[in-house]
Specification:
The chain is an all-alpha fold. About 75% of the residues lie in helices and about 0% in strands. α8 runs antiparallel to α11 and α10 packs antiparallel against α11.
Protein backbone atom coordinates (compact mmCIF):
# COMPACT_ATOMS: atom_id res chain seq x y z
CA UNK A 1 0.00 0.00 0.00
CA UNK A 2 2.84 2.35 0.79
CA UNK A 3 4.34 1.88 -2.67
CA UNK A 4 1.00 2.46 -4.37
CA UNK A 5 0.47 5.62 -2.31
CA UNK A 6 3.94 6.88 -3.22
CA UNK A 7 3.36 6.17 -6.90
CA UNK A 8 -0.01 7.90 -6.75
CA UNK A 9 1.38 11.04 -5.10
CA UNK A 10 4.32 11.31 -7.49
CA UNK A 11 2.11 10.78 -10.52
CA UNK A 12 -0.51 13.27 -9.27
CA UNK A 13 2.19 15.88 -8.63
CA UNK A 14 3.74 15.74 -12.08
CA UNK A 15 1.35 14.05 -14.50
CA UNK A 16 0.71 17.22 -16.51
CA UNK A 17 4.47 17.66 -16.93
CA UNK A 18 5.49 14.04 -17.56
CA UNK A 19 2.86 13.53 -20.26
CA UNK A 20 4.43 16.23 -22.47
CA UNK A 21 7.12 15.66 -25.05
CA UNK A 22 10.66 16.74 -24.21
CA UNK A 23 10.50 19.93 -26.27
CA UNK A 24 7.12 20.99 -24.85
CA UNK A 25 8.31 20.53 -21.25
CA UNK A 26 10.58 23.58 -21.40
CA UNK A 27 7.58 25.92 -21.45
CA UNK A 28 5.71 24.11 -18.67
CA UNK A 29 5.48 25.67 -15.21
CA UNK A 30 6.97 22.53 -13.59
CA UNK A 31 10.09 22.46 -15.76
CA UNK A 32 12.12 24.25 -13.07
CA UNK A 33 10.93 21.88 -10.34
CA UNK A 34 10.45 18.41 -11.88
CA UNK A 35 13.13 18.15 -14.57
CA UNK A 36 16.05 15.86 -13.58
CA UNK A 37 18.36 18.77 -12.65
CA UNK A 38 15.71 20.84 -10.82
CA UNK A 39 15.16 20.98 -7.07
CA UNK A 40 12.37 18.41 -6.71
CA UNK A 41 13.40 16.24 -9.65
CA UNK A 42 16.99 16.14 -8.42
CA UNK A 43 15.72 15.46 -4.92
CA UNK A 44 13.86 12.39 -6.16
CA UNK A 45 17.19 11.02 -7.40
CA UNK A 46 19.03 11.82 -4.15
CA UNK A 47 16.38 10.21 -1.93
CA UNK A 48 16.00 7.27 -4.29
CA UNK A 49 19.75 6.64 -4.24
CA UNK A 50 19.79 6.88 -0.44
CA UNK A 51 17.01 4.28 -0.23
CA UNK A 52 18.89 1.91 -2.53
CA UNK A 53 22.03 2.27 -0.40
CA UNK A 54 19.90 1.56 2.68
CA UNK A 55 18.58 -1.45 0.80
CA UNK A 56 22.06 -2.99 0.89
CA UNK A 57 21.99 -3.23 4.70
CA UNK A 58 19.94 -6.40 4.29
CA UNK A 59 23.05 -8.16 2.99
CA UNK A 60 24.92 -7.11 6.14
CA UNK A 61 22.06 -8.41 8.31
CA UNK A 62 22.15 -11.77 6.53
CA UNK A 63 25.84 -12.14 7.30
CA UNK A 64 25.08 -11.87 11.03
CA UNK A 65 21.85 -13.85 11.56
CA UNK A 66 22.24 -13.88 15.35
CA UNK A 67 22.14 -10.10 15.74
CA UNK A 68 19.13 -8.88 17.69
CA UNK A 69 18.24 -5.99 15.41
CA UNK A 70 15.04 -7.28 13.88
CA UNK A 71 14.31 -10.60 12.22
CA UNK A 72 15.77 -11.53 8.85
CA UNK A 73 12.22 -11.59 7.45
CA UNK A 74 11.65 -8.01 8.61
CA UNK A 75 14.91 -6.95 6.98
CA UNK A 76 13.92 -8.75 3.80
CA UNK A 77 10.63 -6.83 3.76
CA UNK A 78 12.62 -3.61 4.22
CA UNK A 79 14.98 -4.72 1.43
CA UNK A 80 12.08 -5.16 -0.97
CA UNK A 81 10.33 -1.93 0.02
CA UNK A 82 13.39 0.33 -0.13
CA UNK A 83 14.49 -1.24 -3.40
CA UNK A 84 11.14 -0.65 -5.07
CA UNK A 85 10.60 2.80 -3.52
CA UNK A 86 14.14 3.90 -4.42
CA UNK A 87 13.78 2.64 -7.97
CA UNK A 88 10.46 4.44 -8.32
CA UNK A 89 11.95 7.72 -7.13
CA UNK A 90 14.86 7.38 -9.55
CA UNK A 91 12.38 6.72 -12.35
CA UNK A 92 10.56 9.96 -11.52
CA UNK A 93 13.93 11.70 -11.15
CA UNK A 94 14.63 10.82 -14.79
CA UNK A 95 11.24 12.38 -15.69
CA UNK A 96 10.73 9.30 -17.88
CA UNK A 97 13.41 10.30 -20.33
CA UNK A 98 16.81 8.74 -21.05
CA UNK A 99 19.06 11.17 -22.88
CA UNK A 100 22.63 10.05 -22.11
CA UNK A 101 24.51 6.72 -22.35
CA UNK A 102 25.15 6.63 -18.59
CA UNK A 103 21.45 7.26 -17.92
CA UNK A 104 20.62 4.42 -20.31
CA UNK A 105 23.02 2.01 -18.56
CA UNK A 106 21.74 3.07 -15.13
CA UNK A 107 18.13 2.55 -16.20
CA UNK A 108 18.81 -0.90 -17.67
CA UNK A 109 20.77 -2.14 -14.65
CA UNK A 110 18.13 -0.72 -12.32
CA UNK A 111 15.33 -2.52 -14.16
CA UNK A 112 17.30 -5.77 -14.19
CA UNK A 113 18.01 -5.47 -10.47
CA UNK A 114 14.35 -4.89 -9.66
CA UNK A 115 13.20 -7.74 -11.91
CA UNK A 116 15.72 -10.29 -10.61
CA UNK A 117 14.99 -9.22 -7.04
CA UNK A 118 11.22 -9.57 -7.38
CA UNK A 119 11.51 -12.92 -9.14
CA UNK A 120 13.89 -14.13 -6.43
CA UNK A 121 11.38 -13.00 -3.80
CA UNK A 122 8.74 -15.12 -5.50
CA UNK A 123 11.07 -18.11 -5.67
CA UNK A 124 11.65 -17.96 -1.91
CA UNK A 125 7.99 -18.89 -1.42
CA UNK A 126 8.10 -21.40 -4.27
CA UNK A 127 11.03 -23.35 -2.82
CA UNK A 128 9.64 -24.12 0.63
CA UNK A 129 11.34 -26.51 3.05
CA UNK A 130 11.59 -30.31 3.19
CA UNK A 131 8.80 -31.94 5.18
CA UNK A 132 10.59 -35.14 6.15
CA UNK A 133 8.70 -35.66 9.40
CA UNK A 134 5.36 -35.37 7.66
CA UNK A 135 6.52 -37.69 4.87
CA UNK A 136 7.72 -40.24 7.42
CA UNK A 137 4.43 -40.05 9.31
CA UNK A 138 2.53 -40.62 6.06
CA UNK A 139 4.52 -43.75 5.26
CA UNK A 140 4.08 -45.04 8.80
CA UNK A 141 0.31 -44.53 8.56
CA UNK A 142 0.28 -46.42 5.25
CA UNK A 143 2.35 -49.18 6.80
CA UNK A 144 -0.17 -49.55 9.61
CA UNK A 145 -2.90 -50.16 7.01
CA UNK A 146 -0.83 -52.41 4.73
CA UNK A 147 2.35 -53.74 6.41
CA UNK A 148 5.41 -53.51 4.19
CA UNK A 149 4.25 -50.41 2.32
CA UNK A 150 6.86 -48.12 3.84
CA UNK A 151 9.77 -50.42 2.98
CA UNK A 152 8.46 -50.96 -0.54
CA UNK A 153 8.24 -47.24 -1.23
CA UNK A 154 11.51 -46.26 0.48
CA UNK A 155 13.52 -48.96 -1.32
CA UNK A 156 11.94 -48.04 -4.65
CA UNK A 157 12.63 -44.32 -4.24
CA UNK A 158 16.28 -45.02 -3.41
CA UNK A 159 16.54 -46.63 -6.82
CA UNK A 160 15.21 -43.41 -8.40
CA UNK A 161 17.68 -40.78 -7.21
CA UNK A 162 17.16 -37.31 -8.71
CA UNK A 163 19.61 -35.90 -11.22
CA UNK A 164 22.60 -34.65 -9.19
CA UNK A 165 22.86 -30.93 -8.48
CA UNK A 166 26.21 -29.39 -9.53
CA UNK A 167 28.60 -28.63 -6.64
CA UNK A 168 28.71 -24.95 -7.58
CA UNK A 169 25.58 -24.47 -9.68
CA UNK A 170 25.48 -21.61 -12.16
CA UNK A 171 22.18 -20.25 -13.37
CA UNK A 172 22.71 -21.62 -16.87
CA UNK A 173 23.61 -25.08 -15.56
CA UNK A 174 20.52 -25.15 -13.35
CA UNK A 175 18.23 -24.04 -16.17
CA UNK A 176 19.62 -26.77 -18.40
CA UNK A 177 18.85 -29.38 -15.75
CA UNK A 178 15.27 -28.23 -15.01
CA UNK A 179 13.70 -30.60 -17.63
CA UNK A 180 15.60 -33.54 -16.11
CA UNK A 181 14.50 -32.60 -12.59
CA UNK A 182 10.88 -32.28 -13.68
CA UNK A 183 11.14 -35.74 -15.26
CA UNK A 184 12.56 -37.03 -11.95
CA UNK A 185 9.51 -35.62 -10.13
CA UNK A 186 7.09 -37.35 -12.49
CA UNK A 187 9.03 -40.62 -12.32
CA UNK A 188 9.04 -40.76 -8.52
CA UNK A 189 5.38 -39.78 -8.24
CA UNK A 190 4.41 -42.41 -10.84
CA UNK A 191 6.41 -45.08 -9.00
CA UNK A 192 4.58 -44.44 -5.71
CA UNK A 193 1.19 -44.62 -7.40
CA UNK A 194 2.09 -47.83 -9.24
CA UNK A 195 3.43 -49.40 -6.03
CA UNK A 196 0.22 -48.57 -4.20
CA UNK A 197 -1.87 -50.11 -6.99
CA UNK A 198 0.16 -53.30 -6.72
CA UNK A 199 -0.61 -53.71 -3.03
CA UNK A 200 -4.09 -52.16 -3.00
CA UNK A 201 -5.71 -55.60 -2.84
CA UNK A 202 -4.09 -56.04 0.59
CA UNK A 203 -5.83 -52.95 1.97
CA UNK A 204 -8.49 -53.54 4.68
CA UNK A 205 -11.89 -54.51 3.33
CA UNK A 206 -13.53 -51.37 4.63
CA UNK A 207 -14.61 -48.41 2.50
CA UNK A 208 -13.45 -45.80 5.02
CA UNK A 209 -10.03 -47.44 5.41
CA UNK A 210 -9.67 -47.82 1.65
CA UNK A 211 -10.35 -44.10 1.20
CA UNK A 212 -7.79 -43.35 3.91
CA UNK A 213 -5.28 -45.63 2.16
CA UNK A 214 -5.58 -43.74 -1.11
CA UNK A 215 -5.54 -40.36 0.63
CA UNK A 216 -2.31 -41.26 2.38
CA UNK A 217 -0.98 -42.70 -0.89
CA UNK A 218 -1.65 -39.40 -2.65
CA UNK A 219 0.26 -37.60 0.11
CA UNK A 220 3.17 -40.05 -0.21
CA UNK A 221 3.36 -39.46 -3.97
CA UNK A 222 3.29 -35.72 -3.39
CA UNK A 223 6.17 -35.95 -0.89
CA UNK A 224 8.21 -38.11 -3.27
CA UNK A 225 7.81 -35.38 -5.88
CA UNK A 226 8.34 -32.53 -3.43
CA UNK A 227 11.70 -33.86 -2.20
CA UNK A 228 13.10 -33.35 -5.68
CA UNK A 229 11.33 -30.00 -6.17
CA UNK A 230 12.76 -28.53 -2.96
CA UNK A 231 16.31 -29.60 -3.81
CA UNK A 232 16.47 -28.32 -7.39
CA UNK A 233 14.51 -25.12 -6.80
CA UNK A 234 16.83 -24.26 -3.88
CA UNK A 235 19.82 -24.68 -6.20
CA UNK A 236 18.11 -22.53 -8.83
CA UNK A 237 17.36 -19.86 -6.23
CA UNK A 238 21.00 -19.80 -5.11
CA UNK A 239 22.24 -19.31 -8.67
CA UNK A 240 19.54 -16.69 -9.34
CA UNK A 241 20.66 -14.73 -6.29
CA UNK A 242 24.17 -14.77 -7.70
CA UNK A 243 22.91 -13.13 -10.91
CA UNK A 244 20.89 -10.62 -8.84
CA UNK A 245 24.08 -9.62 -7.00
CA UNK A 246 25.96 -9.17 -10.27
CA UNK A 247 23.36 -6.84 -11.79
CA UNK A 248 23.06 -5.02 -8.45
CA UNK A 249 26.81 -4.39 -8.45
CA UNK A 250 26.58 -3.14 -12.05
CA UNK A 251 23.73 -0.84 -10.99
CA UNK A 252 25.73 0.55 -8.06
CA UNK A 253 28.70 1.21 -10.33
CA UNK A 254 26.55 2.97 -12.94
CA UNK A 255 24.78 5.03 -10.25
CA UNK A 256 28.19 5.98 -8.82
CA UNK A 257 29.33 7.20 -12.25
CA UNK A 258 26.04 9.05 -12.65
CA UNK A 259 26.56 10.79 -9.28
CA UNK A 260 30.17 11.63 -10.13
CA UNK A 261 29.10 13.23 -13.41
CA UNK A 262 26.40 15.23 -11.61
CA UNK A 263 28.90 16.52 -9.02
CA UNK A 264 31.51 17.28 -11.67
CA UNK A 265 29.07 19.52 -13.52
CA UNK A 266 27.93 21.22 -10.34
CA UNK A 267 24.61 19.51 -9.66
CA UNK A 268 24.84 19.60 -5.87
CA UNK A 269 21.06 19.80 -5.36
CA UNK A 270 20.13 22.10 -2.44
CA UNK A 271 23.74 22.28 -1.22
CA UNK A 272 24.80 24.40 -4.19
CA UNK A 273 22.41 27.19 -3.30
Amino acid sequence: MGLLALAGVLTWRGYAFYRLGIDARVDHADFRTLSPSSDIGHGYGVVGTALILTNLLYLVRKKFPNLRVGSVQAWLAMHVFTGLAGSMLILFHSAFQVRTPIAMVTSITLLLTVFTGLFGRYMVHFVGKPERERARATLEALDSLVPGTRQLIEVGLKKLPPTPIPAHPTLLACLRLVPAWLADERRRKRFVREALHEISDRAPNDDALVREFWRLGSDAAWHAKRDVRVAWSAALLTSWRGMHRIVAIAMILSVSVHIWVAIKFGYWWIFSQ
